[in-house]
C-alpha cells in the first residue's frame, strides 16, 4: 500500500509506466527518484540523506551492488554458506537440495510438506502443505518463469542481478497448516535496533513492531498494516537471536535478518538488504527520521 495522502494522477501514472522499462536500464537514479517520490509522496534529496528510506536508496544503487558479501548473502544458497562458515550451521533450515532446473527435482523423494524458493529473488516461493495436491505442470511453469527473471533488473535492486538463479528446497518447519512466527531483526552498523514480528501468515496476518529491548515501537508500523491484539512475547532464545544477528551482520551497514523459533530452536530465514526496495511508508513519519539516525553511511558516500 502506498502513501494514503498521495493523490494519484492518472496521466502521470501512464507516462511513468511507459517510461519505466527504459529508465530501469538507462537511468537507474532517475527511476529510483521517481519511484521513491511516487510511493512516499516526498522528493528524494540525494545531497542530504537523513531519512532511513533515503539512505536505503543510496545503498541500493551505489553500495550493495558492488559488495561481494551482500551479493553472496542475498542469495539463498550463499546465505546458507555464509551462516555455516560463521559457525551457525545448526540454525539453518534443513535443505532437501539445490537445483539448476525444475526438471532435476525428484518429487517422489520429497516429504509431504516442503518449501521451494528461487535463490536469486525475494518472494519467489512456494509452500507445499500436501504433496498429493501438487499440480506439477503449473509449478514447473511458475519456477521456469522465476528462473528466467532477472529480479534485480525488474525491481532495480542491482545486487540481485549478480546471483545465479537456482531452486532450493527446504524442510517445512511449521506445525500442520500454521506457518511459524517470523522475527525480522533490523541491524544498523552492527547493532540490532528494532524488529517486527509477523504472526498469522497465510490466515490473518499481523505485524507488531518492537525496539531491541522488546518495548513497543508503534511508530514504526508501515503501510497501515494491522497489529495483533494479542500480547506478543519475545521468543525463548531472543537474546541468543540478537547475538547471532549482530555477529552475522557485522560486515554490513544495514541488513534485516529473518528468524523463526520452533519448539525452542532458532532457525535462520534470510538476509534482506533493501526491504520493500527502501520505499517503506511509515504510518508516522517520525519513525523514518528516528530509524535514519541509527544508520551511518557517511563513510560510504562518494561526493
How would you characterize the overall build of this protein?
The protein has 303 residues and is an alpha+beta fold. The chain folds into two domains: 50-91 and 175-303, D-amino Acid Aminotransferase, Chain A, domain 1 (2-Layer Sandwich); 94-171, no CATH class. Helix content is 32%, strand content 19%. The chain is built from nine helices and nine strands. The strands form two sheets. Strands 7-6-5-8-9 form a five-stranded antiparallel beta sheet. Strands 1-4-2-3 form a four-stranded antiparallel beta sheet, covered by helices on one side. A hairpin with a 2-residue loop joins strand 8 (254-262) and strand 9. Helix 1 packs antiparallel against helix 2, helix 3 (52-63) packs across helix 9 and helix 4 (68-74) crosses helix 5.
Morphology call? globular
Helix content: 25-40%
Q: Unreliable runs, pLDDT <50, ≥5 residues?
A: 1-6
Q: Total helix count?
A: 9
The CATH class label of the largest domain is Alpha Beta
CATH topology of the largest domain: D-amino Acid Aminotransferase, Chain A, domain 1
Largest sheet: 5 strands, antiparallel
Radius of gyration, in Å, reads 20 Å
Number of strands: 9
Architecture (CATH level 2) name of the largest domain: 2-Layer Sandwich
Q: Termini separation (Å)?
A: 34 Å
Number of domains: 2
Order of helical and strand elements: HHHHHEEEHHEEEEHEEH
Key phrases:
disordered N terminus, 2 domains, D-amino Acid Aminotransferase, Chain A, domain 1, 303 residues, single chain, 4-stranded antiparallel β-sheet, alpha+beta, 5-stranded antiparallel β-sheet, 9 strands, globular
Amino acid at each position: 500500500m502506498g502513501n494514503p495522502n498521495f493523490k494519484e494522477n492518472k496521466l502521470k501514472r501512464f507516462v511513468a509506466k511507459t517510461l519505466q522499462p527504459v529508465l530501469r536500464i538507462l537511468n537507474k537514479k532517475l527511476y529510483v527518484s521517481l519511484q521513491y517520490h511516487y510511493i512516499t509522496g516526498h522528493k528524494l534529496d540525494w545531497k542530504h540523506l537523513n531519512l532511513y528510506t533515503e539512505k536505503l536508496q543510496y545503498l541500493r544503487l551505489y553500495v550493495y551492488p558492488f559488495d561481494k558479501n551482500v551479493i553472496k548473502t542475498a542469495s539463498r544458497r550463499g546465505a546458507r554458506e555464509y551462516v555455516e562458515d560463521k559457525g551457525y550451521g545448526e540454525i539453518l533450515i534443513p535443505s532437501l537440495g539445490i537445483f539448476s532446473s525444475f526438471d532435476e527435482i525428484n518429487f517422489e523423494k520429497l516429504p509431504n510438506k516442503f518449501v521451494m524458493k528461487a535463490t536469486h529473488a525475494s518472494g519467489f516461493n512456494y509452500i507445499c502443505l500436501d504433496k498429493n495436491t501438487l499440480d506439477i505442470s503449473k509449478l514447473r511453469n511458475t519456477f521456469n518463469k522465476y528462473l528466467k527473471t532477472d529480479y534485480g533488473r525488474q525491481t532495480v535492486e542491482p545486487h540481485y542481478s549478480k546471483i545465479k538463479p537456482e531452486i532450493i528446497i527446504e524442510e517445512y518447519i511449521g506445525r500442520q497448516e500454521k506457518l511459524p512466527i517470523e522475527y525480522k531483526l533490523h541491524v544498523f552498523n552492527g547493532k540490532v535496533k528494532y524488529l517486527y514480528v509477523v504472526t498469522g501468515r497465510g490466515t490473518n496476518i499481523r505485524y507488531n513492531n518492537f525496539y531491541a529491548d522488546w518495548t513497543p515501537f508503534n511508530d514504526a508500523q508501515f503501510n497501515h498494516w494491522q497489529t495483533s491484539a494479542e500480547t506478543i512475547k519475545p521468543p525463548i532464545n531472543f537474546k541468543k537471536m540478537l547475538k547471532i544477528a549482530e555477529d552475522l551482520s557485522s560486515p554490513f551497514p544495514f541488513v534485516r535478518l529473518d528468524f523463526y523459533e520452533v519448539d525452542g530452536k532458532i532457525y535462520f530465514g534470510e538476509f534482506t538488504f533493501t526491504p520493500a526496495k527502501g520505499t517503506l511508508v511509515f504510518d508516522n513519519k517520525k519513525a523514518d527520521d528516528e530509524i535514519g539516525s541509527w544508520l551511518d553511511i557517511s563513510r560510504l558516500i562518494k561526493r
